[in-house]
Design goal:
By secondary structure, this protein is an alpha/beta fold. It contains eight helices and 21 strands. The strands form four sheets. It has an eight-stranded mixed β-sheet, with helices on both faces. Strands 1-5-6-4-3-2 form a six-stranded mixed β-sheet. Strand 11 (174-179) and strand 12 (184-187) form a beta hairpin.
Length: 381
């Protein structure tokens, strides 16, 4: 048992303290707090320590009572003990730290973190995956563990999902609950993937249920708004939608560029690509390509604008180099779900002469350590 003074927020839902000249990472705390903790493990070579919170001696004035009775036990949330305003502040600090430390940017302007208007952090998730206990009850896992915590409701899930029974499932398995715009599906077999539909003021999409789609029910519309604002698609534009998924961005972009323009939506995942075919079938100014983005870019496409929405691992160097070699390309909008890989990739773009015009973080995963960021880059002539 040790006593720690919490120094600052770190990526991954943890905070940082120090003990005997070593960094300690600990969850469930806030900067400025004094806590009792237990060291549970060491990092590789003993370079840092991992600790579990035992009790709070001196709480931060920002600490709130978690709304969820499973907070601290269930591993699904990181920040139930922090208000939305505090989460916004902490996420802003970690993005700044990542861009300074990983991206090596001494001075870079980051817009204030935005959340959905009226955000409470509760009732927003349109998809929840449960494990099931030996008794057939729905459960979540503890953080970093396979130990199950039976739960009868998840407060961050859409209310429609909590109306579904939490017992009498097949024991020791998994279930996924998915809420579309007009229906709720229960998935118990990963091999059988029905489609589900989503809609907002920009359009309607069918998606393989349980596959990738933004989990915050309002996130698709928010992200489209910023992509359209930064990309500013116009009649005649030749636009690449890379890592395009089911066509979330390609559909509203196609409506903006008219018949003289073209959107090329590139996606490697077969099911997502087929869903994009269906979602975009009414648009003559869209072509879908099932391909790895790095391989596709070797064909030297002619784009003047590109939107990127890569996985958490970000972009590899060959993609960045290929984009930079497209002479006609002058605008990129980069949608990122990981501030560390984003900082690394922005450093690469900046070294190649690209100007970072806007960095807009968005709190679209409240109560968790995840943050979405939309970045506007332009080529310096």
């Amino acid at each position: 048992m040790i006593q720690l003074e919490i120094l600052r927020y770190a990526a991954g839902g943890q905070c940082v303290a120090r003990h005997e000249n070593r960094v300690v990472f600990i969850r469930g705390v806030l900067p400025g707090e004094i806590v009792n903790a237990e060291i549970t493990s060491e990092g590789k070579g003993g370079r840092f320590l991992i600790a579990d919170l035992i009790s709070v001696i001196t709480p931060s004035p920002l600490r709130i009572a978690p709304p969820c009775k499973y907070a601290g036990n269930c591993g699904g949330c990181d920040w139930q003990h922090a208000s939305i305003e505090t989460q916004v502040q902490l996420h802003g600090e970690v993005i700044q730290d990542q861009l300074n430390r990983i991206g090596k940017f001494d001075q870079i302007n980051i817009e204030p973190v935005l959340s959905v208007p009226g955000e409470t952090g509760l009732g927003y998730r349109s998809r929840v995956r449960y494990a099931t206990t030996n008794n057939g009850e729905s459960a979540m896992r503890k953080h970093g563990s396979n130990e199950l915590v039976p739960i009868d409701e998840c407060l961050i899930a859409e209310p429609r999902l909590n109306e579904i029974t939490t017992s009498n499932w097949r024991p020791s398995s998994e279930i996924t609950l998915v809420a579309g715009s007009d229906e709720v599906l229960v998935l118990t077999d990963r091999e059988i993937v029905p489609q589900i539909s989503y809609s907002n003021r920009h359009g309607q999409w069918v998606v393989p249920a349980g596959d990738f789609w933004q989990v915050h029910k309002d996130a698709p519309e928010v992200l489209i708004d910023f992509v359209l604002k930064f990309l500013d698609p116009m009649s005649g534009d030749q636009i690449g939608d890379l890592y395009s998924g089911v066509g979330l961005f390609a559909l509203p972009i196609a409506r903006k560029i008219g018949r003289d323009g073209l959107v090329t939506a590139v996606e490697l995942d077969h099911r997502a690509n087929k869903a994009a075919d269906q979602n975009l079938k009414d648009f003559d100014n869209v072509q879908t390509v099932e391909s790895d983005v790095a391989i596709f870019l070797k064909s030297r496409p002619v784009f003047n604008k590109v939107v990127l929405d890569p996985p958490r691992s970000g972009l590899n160097n060959s993609v960045i180099r290929s984009l930079n070699s497209i002479a006609s390309l002058n605008q990129i909008v980069y949608v990122s779900c990981d501030s560390g890989t984003l900082a690394r990739d922005l450093r690469s773009f900046a070294d190649l002469g690209w100007q970072i015009k806007v960095i807009q973080p968005l709190l679209l995963f409240p109560m968790t350590a995840h943050i979405e960021t939309v970045v506007h880059l332009s080529k310096v002539s």
